[in-house]
Amino acid sequence: MIKAYAKSDIGKVREMNQDYYYISNSLDEVQLYMLADGMGGYNGGEIASRLAIQTAKSYIENNFKEIPKDKDSIIQLVGSSMEYANMVVYEKSKEDPELEGMGTTLEICLIYNNKVFIGHIGDSRIYRIRNEFIRKLTQDHSYVQKLVKDGTITKEEAEHHPQKNMLMKALGCNAFIEPDVMVKGFLKDDILIMSTDGLTNLVKQEDIFRLAKKDFERAPKELVDLANQNGGYDNITVVVIKNI
Description:
Elements: E1 2-9, E2 19-23, E3 31-39, H1 44-63, H2 71-95, E4 103-104, E5 106-112, E6 115-121, E7 125-130, E8 133-136, H3 143-150, H4 155-159, E9 180-185, E10 191-195, H5 197-200, H6 205-214, H7 219-229, E11 236-243
Antiparallel strand pairs: 1-11, 2-3, 3-4, 3-5, 5-6, 6-9, 7-8, 7-10, 10-11
């Protein structure tokens, strides 16, 4: 059985919350958990994040019954849902001059048969806690992450880099995208944490581990509170999912 809890907060600085999330009812056939961090002037980010999630969600739900339930087919379904959402958000941004340049990150966790099928684009993150260990399952699609990967700067320098928020990939900004899609085990007592960078820029990985492990039900609220205590410079959204 899977249980999930979530919290989204505007933070202390922003005028609107451009994050958006969706969590499945525990009885749904498709166990689907999604999170998006929108960007774009006026209210573009808010529209992009909501539209991306609603589009990808309906795409997966409409097609899940039709596909064979093997690993490759489900991976392909998750990837296609993101490509379709990208097209919808991109077309929308072209219709209205005020929405030009809007985009969003998108994280998808489709849980089926003790596996999690992950779709990822942008710099929101997914972690998995297993036993006493937390592991980041996604790689940020950011300029700073590229510098770390190339060995130009260290992980520590990346934490405070002035171009920390510059994305190399996002959904809705171009006609085509290449999201990361993968499958990982999701066993009994494993915990997944999905979060926007409003959390991970302000809360250390060890604190995410500690709070999620201590009480996963209260963890989203406690993590949001901690991010706000540490400055709350951005919208903060956290989804915590446990395989019970």
